[in-house]
Input
Amino acid sequence: MPIRTARRLAAALSAAAITTAITAGCAGGPTQPTTAPPQAAPSSPATAPNAPAGAAVGEFSSDAPGSVNVYWTEVPQGLVLVDGLRTLSDARRALSRVQATGRPVVAIVVTHPHPDHVGGLAVFHEAYPTAPVYANVATAEFLRTDPLGFFALTHQQLGDDHPLKPFVPDHPVAPGAALDVGGARLESAEFGAGEAVTAVAYYRPDTGALFAGDLVGNHVTPALLEGHTCGWLTDLDQLRARFPTAKLIYPGHGAPGEPAALIDAQRDYLRTFRALVHPAIAPSSPAGADVDPAERQSVTAELDRRYPDHPRVASLPDLQDRNISAVAAELRAETAANQPPACRP
Ligand SMILES: [Zn+2]
Output
């Protein structure tokens, strides 16, 4: 088989695996919104680390497995929505909760181009057609061109509940740009390949609310299928450094939480995962550079022991096995010379 064909096949297979993981488990139902009562935000991040973010933030989480969040944050002229859920039906359920607030959506911001965060965008755009939909250029391009076939495959799996062509955000966010949305200022930061091929985090300096998308999960088993744990670790260091005054992180999966704790926990999970897989790819290990079933079992058992009650962000039963394969391939390609400090053991 020609190398290029083999590469394409490998890319298609891994895209299929990723899409299966990202799209699986999407039956959704409403949950109670988490509303942080208005409160004067302390100026020092060291003060009251668990203080609410200072302005009401509503949330809808689709049902597990594969539960994913959409948030709406109050601004003077209405609400700003963060991300768009996986399916049209989940988005409709969330929309009724948004409409119940009696406040209009004045803008939508998108964190990254994974199908479980953008599949329902069209529902919100239809309901609020004049609200600009923001995303960085790389996200809009990914949604427009579907380079890994994520959206074609998601549509294949979920049918009409997930549009074949996702809604493409029409307002580009330049790297690091600040947005004026409905009378509030929203800062942003762009991140390189990590959890996804690209990501943007949005921050409200007036409330300390940091909407981090999937850069940070809270007590969830992530999908590592894109094989960028090193990039993700680097993203986490940058996220912490960029928004040192953040008071609450609103993650794409799992409950909101205190920034340092959530970022540290995510970093710990990724570093542990890499450290557990690393000996399995050593030339002296039982299967050499390959990871044999016994090694997989032992890595999975240790992860389960260290991280109990971490529901998967997708319902794929062999998600962890696929994660191990992706991280093993990533580690095999790393050398001391190309390894950034964030990823060194
Ligand atoms: Zn994601």
Summary: The chain has one domain: 3-273.
